[in-house]
Every structure is written in structure tokens, then in C-alpha cells.
């Protein structure tokens, strides 16, 4: 006869927190921020809604925890400057295809101020440094990073959220061939 003790409280807490976050990511990606409810997320996680509130306080707190996104950008200082655009587009394609949180964040950011601020923070903290490295004119760094964001977010919106058939039909190689030079120009070309 084996002694089967219940799991330690911290392991149960970690498992519960993980289940809530996984359910929240899925629900936010599917329903968007406004339509996702604490009750539905709790049901998906197979827990009582009060547990969601206990761990995260409210829906906004849950959203912030569920969609903390690290873009895991490559170390651009180690790359030749002339391939930054291609590298960035390739990396973003991989991130969008492997990370449901980005899709959830894009959906929510389009309709909710908290989501928009979260997306702005991610791009400010993680994409702006790429422009700082690549841009020949320090005064243009914010504008150039913003232009890069228009391409990356526009691609994501049309390919992964709205699923425009012509955009979905493009291969990764075609997207990189089309957008890589554009992103490169935004980052490194002389000012118009």
C-alpha cells in the first residue's frame, strides 16, 4: 500500500494558475477581450470563477498576465545591417505562427484600450531597439519603428486574424521576399 498524499498547495496553485492562463489565452484569442468572460475562462479551466478572481483580481489583471509577450527578437547587433528587414519579417512570421498570445493581443488591441496599450508597450520595448540599432538618423527612430509596426501588424491582421485569402495563400518565402525589402528600407534608407 502506497502513501498517496495530496499534492502540496504550491504545486496545486501553480497548476491552477497555469490552467487559468491557458484557458484565458485561448478564450481571448477566440472571443476577444470584450466577449471573453471570467465565467467562460473558469469553465474552460475547469475551476470555479472565484478562483480566477483570487489569482488575478479582475479581467484586466488576467489579460495582462495571460498576454505577457516576449518577441524573442534575435540579437540584431550580431547581424549584417543589410539583412535586418528580412530577418525581422522571418522572425515575426515564426512568432505569429507559434504564439497564440500575439493573435489574442492583436484582436483585443483593435477593440480595447488596455489591449492597445499592451501592444504599444511590446512594440515600444522590443521593436524600437531594433530601429535604434539600424536607423541612420536618431531623430527618425520612432517614426521608422512605427512604419515597421505597420507592416508587421498589418500582415498579422490580414493573415492570422481576418484571414484574407490572398494573404493566407502567400508562402513564407513570398512574404519575406515582398516585405523584407520594405522593412529594410524603413529601417536603413536615407530619409525621403
Describe the structure in your own words.
With 192 residues, this protein is an all-alpha fold. It has two domains: 58 residues, Arc Repressor Mutant, subunit A (Orthogonal Bundle); 113 residues, Tetracycline Repressor, domain 2 (Orthogonal Bundle). It is built from eleven helices and no strands. α5 crosses α11 and α8 packs across α9. It is elongated and about 55 Å long. The termini are far apart. The model has no long low-confidence stretch (mean pLDDT 87).
Main attributes?
192 residues; Tetracycline Repressor, domain 2; elongated; 2 domains
Concise description?
With 192 residues, the chain is mainly α. The protein has two domains: 9-66, Arc Repressor Mutant, subunit A, CATH 1.10.10; 76-188, Orthogonal Bundle (Tetracycline Repressor, domain 2), CATH 1.10.357. The protein has eleven helices and no strands.
How is the secondary structure organized here?
Blueprint: H1 9-35, H2 38-45, H3 49-56, H4 59-66, H5 84-98, H6 100-109, H7 113-126, H8 128-134, H9 141-161, H10 165-169, H11 172-188
* CATH domain class name of the largest domain: Mainly Alpha
Assembly context of the chains: single chain
Low-confidence stretches: none
CATH topology of the largest domain: Tetracycline Repressor, domain 2
Do you know the CATH architecture of the largest domain? Orthogonal Bundle
Rg over C-alpha atoms, rounded to the nearest angstrom: 20 Å
Relative strand content: under 5%
Mean model confidence by pLDDT: 87
Helix content: over 70%
Describe the sheet with the most strands.
none
Which structural class matches the secondary elements? mainly alpha
**Outline, from the CA principal axes?**
elongated
Annotation field: number of helices: 11
Write down the domain tally. 2
Number of strands: 0
One letter per element, helices H and strands E, the order comes to HHHHHHHHHHH
**What is the first-to-last residue Cα distance?**
79 Å
Amino acid at each position: 500500500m502506497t502513501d498517496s498524499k495530496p499534492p502540496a498547495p504550491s504545486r496545486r496553485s501553480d497548476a491552477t494558475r497555469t490552467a487559468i492562463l491557458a484557458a484565458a489565452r485561448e478564450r481571448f484569442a477566440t472571443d476577444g477581450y470584450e466577449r471573453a468572460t471570467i465565467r467562460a475562462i473558469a469553465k474552460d479551466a475547469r475551476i470555479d470563477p472565484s478562483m480566477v478572481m483570487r489569482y488575478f483580481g479582475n479581467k484586466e489583471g488576467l489579460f495582462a498576465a495571460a498576454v505577457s509577450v516576449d518577441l524573442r527578437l534575435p540579437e540584431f547587433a550580431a547581424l549584417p545591417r543589410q539583412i535586418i528587414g528580412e530577418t525581422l519579417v522571418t522572425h515575426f512570421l515564426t512568432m505569429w505562427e507559434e504564439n497564440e498570445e500575439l493573435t489574442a493581443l492583436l484582436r483585443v488591441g483593435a477593440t480595447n484600450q488596455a489591449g492597445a496599450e499592451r501592444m504599444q508597450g511590446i512594440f515600444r520595448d522590443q521593436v524600437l531597439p531594433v530601429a535604434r540599432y539600424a536607423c541612420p538618423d536618431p531623430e527618425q527612430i520612432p517614426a521608422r519603428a512605427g512604419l515597421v509596426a505597420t507592416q508587421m501588424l498589418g500582415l498579422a491582421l490580414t493573415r492570422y486574424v481576418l484571414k484574407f485569402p490572398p494573404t493566407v495563400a502567400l508562402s513564407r518565402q513570398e512574404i519575406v521576399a515582398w516585405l523584407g525589402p520594405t522593412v529594410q528600407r524603413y529601417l536603413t534608407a536615407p530619409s525621403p
